[in-house]
Hints:
By secondary structure, the chain is of the alpha/beta class. It has five domains: 1-82, no CATH class; 87-172, Orthogonal Bundle (Helix Hairpins); 200-527, Thiamin diphosphate (ThDP)-binding fold, Pyr/PP domains (Rossmann fold); 595-631 and 654-798, Rossmann fold (3-Layer(aba) Sandwich); 810-933, Rossmann fold (3-Layer(aba) Sandwich), CATH 3.40.50. Helices cover 39% and strands 13% of the residues. The strands form five sheets. It has a nine-stranded mixed β-sheet with strand order 3-9-10-8-7-4-6-5-11. A seven-stranded mixed β-sheet has the order 15-12-16-17-19-18-23, sandwiched between helices. It is globular, with a radius of gyration of 33 Å. Its EC number is 1.2.4.2.
Amino acid sequence: MHEGSMKAWLESSQFAGGNATYIEELYEQYLDNPQSVNEEWRALFDQLPSVEGVEVEAKHSDIREDFKAAAKKPHRGQVIVPQITSDTKQVKVLQLINAYRFRGHQHANLDPLGLWKQERVRDLELSYHELEQDDLDKPFNVGSLAVGEERLKLKDIQSTLVKTYCGSIGAEYMYITSTEEKRWLQKRLESVQCKPNLNQSDKVRLYKELVAADGLEKYLASKFPGAKRFSLEGGDALIPMLKTLISRAGEQGAKEVVIGMAHRGRLNVLVNVLGKNPSVLFDEFSGKHDETLGSGDVKYHMGYSSDFATPGGNVHLALAFNPSHLEIVNPVVMGSVRARMDRRNCPDGSLALPITIHGDSAIAGQGVVQETFNLSQTRAYSVGGTVRIVVNNQVGFTTHNPKDTRSTQYCTDIAKMVQAPIFHVNSDDPEAVVFATQVALDFRNKFKRDVVIDLVCYRRHGHNEADEPNATQPLMYQKIKKHPVPRQIYAQQLIGEKVLTEQDADRALDEYRAALDHGACVVEEWRPMMEHSVDWRPYLNHDWDIAYDAAISLERLKSLAEKSSAYPDNVVPQSRVKKIYQDRALMAKGEKPLDWGFAETLAYADLVDSGTRIRLTGQDCGRGTFFHRHAVIHSQKDASTYMPLENISDEQATIEIYDSVLSEEAVLAFEYGYATAEPQTLTIWEAQFGDFANGAQVVIDQFLSSGEVKWGRLCGLTMLLPHGYEGQGPEHSSARLERFLQLCADHNIQVCVPTTPAQVFNMIRRQAIRPMRRPLVVMSPKSLLRHPMAVSTLEELSDGVYHNVIGEIDDLPAEQVERVVMCSGKVYYDLYDARNKGEIKNVAIVRLEQLYPFPQKEMEAVMEKYAHVKDFVWCQEEPQNQGAWYCSQHHFWDVIPTGAKLTYVGRAASASPAVGYLAVHNKQQKELVQQALSV
C-alpha cells in the first residue's frame, strides 16, 4: 500500500470520529496476536508500511498516532453517510466489548442493600453502537474476548460480557497501560465469566466461615451487651476472603503474611482467622489484665501472631497492632514485610504477603494512603505488591452521603494513581468474593503490584454498638433491619443447590456456638507458632546501663578508614566530593582530625564488617542534606554509583542507603515497621531538616513513643533530626526537641544531642551493639558538620564509649568556678569560644549529651567538684517554651547542690521556633551567650 492509498484508507468513513479508538484497540490485538482479528482486518494490518532499519514497534506507535490524527481531521468535500456494512458491524461489536471492559462495573450488582442509584451507561447498550436486535443471532469475530472461540453470536458475546462485568463483581482495569496485564485480567475474568471453580466441600467450608463470622458477633452481643466491639456484621465475607488469601498465598509459596486493619471486624479476624483463643478475648471483655504487660490498649487495637496451615505448608500470620489513627498502620505493615523479605533474601515479595484492610471513608480521606501507594514501586519500599481490601460499609462514621466523604465515584479511585486493578464485589455473594480474591492474589504474585478489592457491604450497627445510626441514615437502616445476614442468604442458595439441608445449616450454627462456649480455638487451620520470625529473646529485659564492650583497636579503625575512603579508578567523583574523599584519606592516616561525616561513615563500616545489617533512608540521605555524607559516589563519567561501605570486606553484612520519596509520615511508619520486625538490623531514618518530622508526628506519638508500653513492641529505630539555630528561619532551626521530651516516660526512648564526631561514632555503634532495642532520637547537627572545633582523633573514637555527659574540658581550677553553665548541642561551641576570647576563668561549661533517659549518676559525678557553687545556668538556643528547659529542669534541680539557684538563659518564649532575619538571630545568639557567661 503506497503513501496515497494509506492516506485514503485512514480518511475513509470507517476511521472517522469515535471509531479510531476502537481501531487502535483492534490494532493492538493484532500486534499481540494476528490471529485474534478477522481475515479482512489482518490483511489490512499486514499491508501497513515498514521502514528499513526502524523497529516494528516504533512504526506501529506512529501508526496509532495516525489513527488519532485521522479521526480528528475534518473530511473535505461532500459529507458521506457511511453504509452499515458487515465490516462496520464487526467494528461496532468490538466497540461493545471494549465498552463493557471500560464501564461494565457501573452496571454491576454491587450493593447488597440495593440503594446505589447507578446512572444509565449508554455505552453498554446495543443501540449506542448501531447494533440491532436482528444482529443478536449473527456471528462475529470476538477479537480478544477470552472465550476460547474465534466467533460467537452477538447474543452470546453480550451474555458473556454481562455475566463477566455486570454481575456481583465490577472490575476496573482498563486504565492500566500494560497490555500484558490487561490481557491477563481479561483472560482470567472472561474465560469463566467471573465464577470460581468450587466443589461441594469448598462451598460447605465457605458456608461455615460465614457461620463463624456471624456467630462470633452474635455471641459477643449476647454475652457482653452494649460493649464496643466494632462488629463485622454486614461485612461477614471478610473472613472467607482472608482465609482464601492466606491459603492460596501459602499454596503459591508464601511463608509469612502480615495484616494491617483498623477496628471494624478486628475481633472477628483475631478469633476466626488467626485463631486467638475465644476465652482470652472474653477475659479481655471482662476487664482482666496482667499489670506486668505495661499500660495495655483496648481490645480492638491489639495484634496477634500465629501459624496457619495451607496446602503449601504452614504460613506465619501477624496482625499488626495499630492505634485509632486508621490508615497509619498500612506503611507499618509494608515495612514489616520488607524486613521479612530481606531476612529471607526474597527480593520480589513471593515469600511474604502484606494485606491491608481499609474503611471506605478512610482510604479516600487520609493522605497516608496516597503516600503508601506511591511507595509501592520504589526501590526502598517495594514489597512485591500489597493486597488492599476495603470493607466498604457505605457510611463514613456517621456520614452517609458520599459527596461528603470523597470527590470521586468510588472510594478506591486513589488506587488508579499506580494503575492497580480494582475489583468491586458484592459481599452478599460469597462465591464472587472468593473469585475476586483469587484473581487479586494471582495478579499480585504475577506482576508484583498492588491490587484492590472493594468489599461492598454494610454496617448492621452504628459506628460502634453504642451509636444510633438511624439518627443520620434512616432509610439505610430501615433496609438493613429487614436484610438477611450473609450466612442466611448463602444457606438458602446451598439448600437450593442440594449442597446442604436445613438441618446441616442449623447444625453448623450449633457446633460453632458450642466451640465458643468451650473457649478453645475455632480455626481448623491454626497451628502452634514455630520460629518463622526472628528470635527477639536476646533483646528482652535489658536496662539502659547494661554492660557491653564496644572498644575498637586503632589498627582496626585505620583499616576501616582506608577502605571506606577508597574508590576504584574508573569512578570519577564530582570535584567537591573528590576533595572530601581526599581529606578522608588523610584522616585515615591520622594526618588530619576526623570530621562528622567520616566518623559516622566509620561507625557504619565497623558495624557491617562485624555482621550488623544497616538500612538508612531519608530525603537525599545518600549525599546528606548538608553535603557531608557522600556514602554514595555518583561518577561524573557515566552516572554510575559506588558505595565504599559495600566494599569493606567479602564477608560483610548488607548496607542499604536509599534516598526516600518526599514523605515523612509513610516513610517513618515504614521504617518503624521494619525495625519492629528486624532487631538485627540498624534501621535509621534521617529527616532532611529536623522540623520535617512534624509530618510524621502521628508515627512518633502512636508508635515510637508508646508502642512498647501499649503493645510490648520493641523497636530500635534511629531518627537523625538536623537541629540547630543557624539563622535559617523558623522552618529550618528546630527539630522540636520539646515534643520528644514531653513524650519521654517509662524509659521509652533515648534523646541524644552529640557534639563531636567521636560521640556520633560511638552513639551509632552503641545503638546496634548494646542488646536493647528502643528508639533513638538524635538532634543531629548542621554547622557542626564542618565546625573547626567539632573534630575528633582516631584515639577518641577507639574507646567505644558514648559519654552521656561531658564535663569541663579545660584545666579550670574547680575552686575558682563561680558559675556552672549546663547546655546541649551547638550552643556549647558558641559558649566555649566566647569564654576563651573573653578570658573568663570562673565559668565552667558542662555538656549534656543525652537528655533522656537522664544520666543522673554521671551528672552527679561531674557536679561533685562544684559542690561549693551556688550559681547554675541552663543555656539553650531554643525559646524558653521550647527546647529542654520545661521538660528537663526537674532533672537539673536534682543534680545541683542543695541551696543553689538555677537560672534559664536563652531566647524568650515564642510562638515561632525562630526569627526569620539573620541579623536578629545573630543579635539574639550573642546576647544569650553573653548572659550565660556573665557572673
